[in-house]
């Protein structure tokens, strides 16, 4: 695939840049181009901007999680006992009160950012009718109006939609996808989650923290296979401690509503013959690129079987002036990464040099407990034949871990056996997604495990885990860290330092 930037500007284009989709990738792409003095428009078919991220995905789910952590008293149970909670009889309305407030604020922030950068927002459904031409159809109930616009550069940032099995009778209350959670009328007593990916694990752990009995089903033998296996083993242990049942290596055959002595319920029948009956089923088997109505063929493009668009290293599609960013191009499907992809796409399109380090993009998985990783894991390094050693710290060894009541958290460093260069950081526990950035910064500058030995961290903090893990790793080597003293020149008495 070509790496050349798109063709030079043509005077009669309606816009320099047209962005289809207003999620994180689309927002950042539009604002970057606007700051370069380009005429930019963002097309969004929803009634409100922000895409899945703000309206049904990242922001509501993480706020939902935070509300659960607070109201259930989950973080304090290690100190005050398993029965501790801030509020008894937590309702969906309790959880959504906080969620709605945060969503409204984030929507206002995005609207303000686009407005002050003079990015035009268009509420319409977009589809290609040519390589540079997009038809915008009115979606505001004002008839079948439409207009055609042209753009020198087009960025496709339409995101994804939840996959649905056509044989399953979804009803939005008993048999749901993740988008339906914000519309629940009551919390279930029992839940079956089908799918052990990121979204499935996140919501399964949230419900379990509320005391809901959860069964998690996945046909793969492990949860979150792209994560370091030791970390996912810890996650599985803690989920089971929260009374969750894991049915791994199991395939679902039938999902059907049933009526029993407890009322309207849902039965899940597995290929192995097992049956699981619960109040609610959450179906979370991946997401599909929302490309089915874009008419990609008119622009010379196509999507794969899951609706995803292929791009090169600059996020160009097969048509060099059309870029695609965010979840629609597939893994890792993270809001933070989508933002960076949008920025890089606009910079490349308009000839602005940039630098980015995709291999150091961090992953944040907001299960309970949360997980965050950066760099390589043990399985990847073993497969590549790279000699390495590890160092670990348990939160229970750190004063801050005792203070916050998290005695199960773990921080794991992976470093090169010979050069001691830091190759990966993997964390599970409170604050993991914040704590990871220390390791990310050290890796960006090619730092070694000795950096953590020679550095002083505030006390008491979770950051001390880095120092403890570094000492653990060096002790495994059986050799002392590089601690050569740096001699300072002598100073006269009274000299100001």
From TrEMBL:
SUPFAM superfamilies: FAD/NAD(P)-binding domain, FAD/NAD-linked reductases, dimerisation (C-terminal) domain. It comes from the Bacteria. Its cofactor is FAD. Binds 1 FAD per subunit. Its EC number is 1.6.1.1. This is NAD(P)(+) transhydrogenase (Si-specific). Keywords: Cytoplasm, FAD, Flavoprotein, NAD, NADP, Nucleotide-binding, Oxidoreductase. Pfam families: Pyr_redox_2 (PF07992), Pyr_redox_dim (PF02852). The keyword Transmembrane does not apply. The lineage of its organism: Bacteria, Thermotogati, Deinococcota, Deinococci, Deinococcales.
């Amino acid at each position: 695939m070509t790496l050349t930037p798109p063709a030079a500007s043509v005077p009669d284009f309606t816009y320099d840049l047209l962005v289809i989709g207003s999620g994180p990738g689309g927002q950042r792409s539009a604002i970057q181009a606007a700051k370069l003095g380009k005429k930019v428009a963002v097309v969004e078919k929803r009634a409100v901007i922000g895409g899945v991220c703000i309206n049904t995905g990242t922001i509501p789910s993480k706020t939902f999680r935070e509300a659960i952590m607070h109201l259930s008293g989950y973080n304090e149970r290690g100190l005050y006992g398993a029965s501790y909670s801030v509020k008894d009889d937590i309702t969906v309305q309790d959880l959504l009160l906080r969620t709605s407030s945060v969503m409204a604020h984030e929507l206002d922030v995005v609207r303000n950012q686009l407005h002050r950068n003079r990015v035009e927002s268009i509420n319409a459904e977009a589809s290609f009718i040519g390589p540079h031409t997009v038809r915008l159809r009115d979606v505001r109930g004002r008839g079948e109006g439409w207009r055609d616009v042209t753009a020198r550069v087009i960025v496709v940032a339409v995101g994804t939609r939840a996959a649905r099995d056509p044989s399953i009778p979804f009803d939005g209350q008993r048999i749901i996808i993740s988008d339906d959670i914000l519309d629940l009328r009551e919390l279930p007593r029992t839940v079956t989650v089908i799918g052990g990916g990121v979204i499935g694990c996140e919501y399964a752990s949230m419900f379990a923290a509320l005391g809901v009995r959860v069964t998690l089903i996945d046909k793969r033998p492990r949860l979150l296979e792209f994560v370091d296996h030791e970390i996912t083993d810890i996650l599985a242990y803690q989920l089971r401690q929260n009374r969750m049942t894991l049915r791994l290596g199991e395939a679902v055959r039938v999902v059907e509503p049933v009526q029993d002595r407890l009322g309207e319920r849902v039965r899940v029948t597995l290929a192995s013959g097992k049956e699981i009956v619960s109040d609610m089923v959450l179906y979370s088997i991946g997401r599909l690129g929302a490309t089915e109505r874009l008419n990609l063929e008119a622009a010379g493009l196509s999507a794969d079987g899951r609706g995803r668009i292929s791009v090169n290293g600059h996020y160009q599609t097969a048509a060099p002036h059309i870029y695609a960013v965010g979840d629609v191009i597939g893994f890792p499907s993270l809001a933070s990464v989508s933002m960076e992809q949008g920025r890089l796409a606009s910079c490349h399109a308009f000839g602005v040099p940039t630098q980015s380090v995709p291999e150091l993009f961090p992953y944040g998985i907001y299960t309970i407990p949360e997980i965050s990783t950066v760099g390589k894991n043990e399985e990847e390094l073993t497969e590549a034949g790279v000699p390495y050693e590890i160092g670990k710290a348990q939160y229970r060894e750190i004063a801050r871990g005792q203070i916050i009541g998290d005695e199960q958290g773990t921080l794991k460093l992976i470093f090169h056996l010979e050069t001691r260069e830091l190759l990966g950081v993997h964390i599970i526990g409170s604050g993991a997604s914040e704590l990871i950035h220390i390791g990310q910064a050290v890796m960006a500058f090619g730092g070694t495990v000795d950096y953590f030995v020679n550095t002083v961290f505030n006390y008491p903090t979770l950051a001390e885990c880095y120092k403890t893990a570094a000492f653990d790793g060096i002790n495994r080597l059986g050799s002392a860290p590089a601690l050569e003293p740096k001699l300072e020149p002598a100073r006269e008495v009274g000299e100001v330092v």
